[in-house]
Amino acid sequence: MLPSSLHTFAADCAEPASQRFAVAVYGGAFDPPHAGHASVIRRTLETCDHVVVVPSYRHADAKRMADFDLRCAWVERMAARFGGRVTCSPVERELGADGRVVYSYDLMCRIAQDHALTSQRLALVIGEDNLTRLGTFHRAAELRERFGLLVANEEMTVHSSAIRAMIASGQAIPAAWQLPEIQADMTIYRRTM
């Protein structure tokens, strides 16, 4: 991959190229959201008019997560730093209400419908680590055919799992990793780990 920190792919294109999207969809556990997530959003806004952040209702690997409503509230607080260009969508609660796993393809179709946009005006945001796995995604060929793709390189090595583990073991979290908007709530990981 090229050294750029964000690569844009138009729908049905295998090579990165300059592209602007109306909406980018950034899904994940956000358990908790951190400065790395904010960095991805900041870079995504350079190529999109709006970013919809979608916390996972059920994790695909069935891992335990903090309360869904709390994670949505955290994402909303993080989104506020970007003005009205970033919103949190709890749509996975509805899509996964019957216990189903919510796949990226289904999520993208729903966001396209909700925003009344053609699928080519939407892009899925993924980390560079998921680019090699993209072919294993549910309905991967249709996902790439219909929707754009934004691949974000990791600018800082910070992961939610490391933050949770550090809090659970009583270690201090590096200030560069944290979001001041949610820092006071991080004590929940002392009780849940």
UniProtKB/TrEMBL annotation:
The enzyme's E.C. designation: 2.7.7.18
Gene3D superfamilies the UniProt entry points to: HUPs (3.40.50.620)
Main enzyme class: transferase
Recorded catalytic activity of this chain's protein: nicotinate beta-D-ribonucleotide + ATP + H(+) = deamido-NAD(+) + diphosphate
Coiled-coil annotated residue ranges, if any: none
Pathway: Cofactor biosynthesis; NAD(+) biosynthesis; deamido-NAD(+) from nicotinate D-ribonucleotide: step 1/1
Primary role: Catalyzes the reversible adenylation of nicotinate mononucleotide (NaMN) to nicotinic acid adenine dinucleotide (NaAD).
Family of this protein: Belongs to the NadD family.
Listed name of the protein: nicotinate-nucleotide adenylyltransferase
